[in-house]
Structure formats: structure tokens, C-alpha cells
Amino acid sequence: MKSQKGKIERLRLAQRLRQRRIQSGMTLQQIADAAGVTKSTVQRYEQAAIENPRPVVVQGIAAVLGVSPAWLCGAGENNDLEVAFEDVVEKLRVRPELCDLVCAAADYSPSQLRCAVRVVRALSEN
Fold first, then answer.
1. Is the entire prediction scored with pTM above 0.85?
2. How many domains does the chain fold into?
3. CA 1 – CA 43 distance, rounded (Å)
4. Which of 12, 13, 19, 89 has its CA 20 to 30 A from that of 68?
5. Which domain, by its residues, includes 98?
6. Would you say residue 79 has pLDDT above 80?
7. Would you say 65 and 21 are in contact if contact means Cβ atoms under 8 Å apart?
8. In CATH, what number is assigned to the domain containing residue 31?
9. With contact defined as beta carbons under 8 Å apart, do 50 and 18 qualify?
10. Residue 78 confidence (pLDDT)
């Protein structure tokens, strides 16, 4: 029974890791580099081939993917990104002018976006 439970947990971790990796547009190598592990380690986690996942590795991968280690291991149905997304959608729904702002910035380069964010933050401080 215990080995079956462990297998289910490993499969859940593998599924969520792959899901978030694809959603984030990251490669196995990019996650590995950012988490300080090898590409094959990330690949083995994603294939549920790690018998005993190491907490430090799970924490590192979760941080890179922007989710909690608990969510990555199967706890809860929502992750922080989904909750944040729902919050943004609600704000866009209530404040249509935010849609105009987002649409205007959609084609900005990364440096232009950083500049726009600084301007918006400066405006909110006044």
C-alpha cells in the first residue's frame, strides 16, 4: 500500500512539473540551470523516475516554476499563478481602462515593459 501511495505522489509531482514547465515555456535545461541541478535530474522528476524526491530539489524546481513545493507535490488544486491570474482577470473585468493599458503594452520589448512598469509604479506613489 505504501509503495502505491508513493507512486501516486511521484506521478502527481511529475504531471504538475511537466504542466508548469510547458505553461512557462521553459526547457528541461533552463529549469535545471536555474534550480542548480542537472537536466537529467529534472527529466527523471518529470518522468516520475525518482523513488524518493529530495525536498531541496523539489523546493528549487518549485521556485523556478513560481509555485509552492506543496502544490508541485500535489497539495491543493490551485497554484499561486492560477490565483493571481484570476485576480488579474477580475480587475480587468471591473476596470476596462486596464484592458486598454495592457493592449497598448502588448507589443513592447522587455526593456520597454520594464520602463512602463516603473512609470506606473511611480504614478501610484503620487
1. no
2. 2
3. 26
4. 89
5. 80-125
6. no
7. yes
8. 1.10.260.40
9. no
10. 56
